[in-house]
Amino acid sequence: MNNVTVVDEKVLSDCLNEISRALLQADVQFSMVREMQTNIKNIVNFDELAAGHNKRRIIQQAVSNELCKMLDPGIPSFTPKKGKTSVIMFVGLQGSGKTTTCTKYAYYHQKKGWKPALVCADIFRAGAFDQLKQNATKAKIPFYGSYMESDPVKIAGEGVERFKKENCDLIIVDTSGRHKQEAALFEEMRQVAEVTKPDLVIFVMDSGIGQAAYDQAQAFKQSVAIGAVIMTKMDGHAKGGGAFSAVAATKSPVIFIGTGEHMDEFEVFDVKPFVGRLLGMRDWSGIMDRIHEVVPTDQQTELVQKLSEGTFTFRLMYEQLQCLMKMGPAGQVLSAFGAELMPKGNEKESQAKFKRYMTIMDSMTNAELDSTNPKLMNESRIIHIARGSGRTVQDVMEMIQFYKLFAKIWNNAMKRLKVPKKGSMNARSQS
Ligand code: GDP
Ligand code: MG
């Protein structure tokens, strides 16, 4: 083993430890973190790593790919077809968000022109039918349930029958999540499935349950053929590492996530951003959204590129000052974390100052502009730049001071935003 390999192995193990800590904090099961580590160690190509300029980035990319793979059970879930009747049964513990998610799922499809319907087969929880009725009415979705009937299997069967006759193409069956005895709950799920013959059974899990996800999913899977997972409450603190457990236990993919209590707070599950968030890049996607909102499409790539390069050169400052002065879209994004640079009420003064700094920078050499080191400009260079720009040495010094402040704010903001910086990885979340 040569020295280079030893160094790279150290980088790799440091990096993996850092990432593993983040994953465990996000509730990924220990055994799966171990599995990921083993796989990465097997696939990392040390030759490639040795030649790579950014080893940590290479490792992070490998981990990210590996995690995406672990969330892919290899078989796509059943996808209902518009116009053709499908029965979808929802299961999960009480409080996991089944009833809410049933409505969201129905509403999501209704907006796309489907004819969904809701069946309430939860007779255990008082008010279960009222809750579903309320949700369904609000979304103008037909529903079926009963205050009198005490047999959930019967209600489920009748509801599905009725909506089939009415030519609904998405019949959604909401079930109970609690029973006096656990065994009875699972037997009830089995019977409801037997009578409704669902095309797809969706396991609904609260993203906050963490490590318990595996056992829960496993328990339900033993009585009904789960084909997909929906994770709720992703708007909260939980990062949803339990998804790995649910996927492993059910061999089914996560298809949607719930991101709030409202009907439209529901998103198609997208594995890449999910994994990014697990690795601690959550806020980065927030600033990305902001960029997509306010920056014209043709300028987005360039700005993102700059943000992620993470080296705050004089030239970058020059460009950012231009943005701040114009208060164009990029300036709007940047001013969000640069308020100290441009105090409110002093806009006019700031603009004059920025203009002065830019004039001074026009007299800097390319090497100086592309550097992050103010010391590159010694006394004679400073005098030269002052002369060239028609300003005083004092002005040049002030500009350099301003650069130092701007660089500090910029780099802190990048840390806070957890932008994957060149040469570093920020895998750990600060929250
Ligand atoms: P069920 O017992 O499984 O039917 O669960 P419910 O649908 O009644 O939901 C339980 C609670 O979780 C309710 O207060 C819902 O508003 C809430 N809830 C469900 N999904 C979400 C979500 O994605 N985000 C948030 N913040 N709350 C949710
Ligand atoms: Mg419910």
Automatic annotation (TrEMBL):
Keywords: Cytoplasm, Endoplasmic reticulum, GTP-binding, Hydrolase, Nucleotide-binding, Ribonucleoprotein, RNA-binding, Signal recognition particle. It catalyses: GTP + H2O = GDP + phosphate + H(+). GO terms for molecular function: 7S RNA binding; endoplasmic reticulum signal peptide binding; GTP binding; GTPase activity. NCBIfam families: SRP54_euk. Belongs to the GTP-binding SRP family. SRP54 subfamily. The M domain binds the 7SL RNA in presence of SRP19 and binds the signal sequence of presecretory proteins. The NG domain, also named G domain, is a special guanosine triphosphatase (GTPase) domain, which binds GTP and forms a guanosine 5'-triphosphate (GTP)-dependent complex with a homologous NG domain in the SRP receptor subunit SRPRA. The two NG domains undergo cooperative rearrangements upon their assembly, which culminate in the reciprocal activation of the GTPase activity of one another. SRP receptor compaction upon binding with cargo-loaded SRP and GTPase rearrangement drive SRP-mediated cotranslational protein translocation into the ER. This is Signal recognition particle 54 kDa protein. The lineage of its organism: Eukaryota, Viridiplantae, Streptophyta, Embryophyta, Tracheophyta.
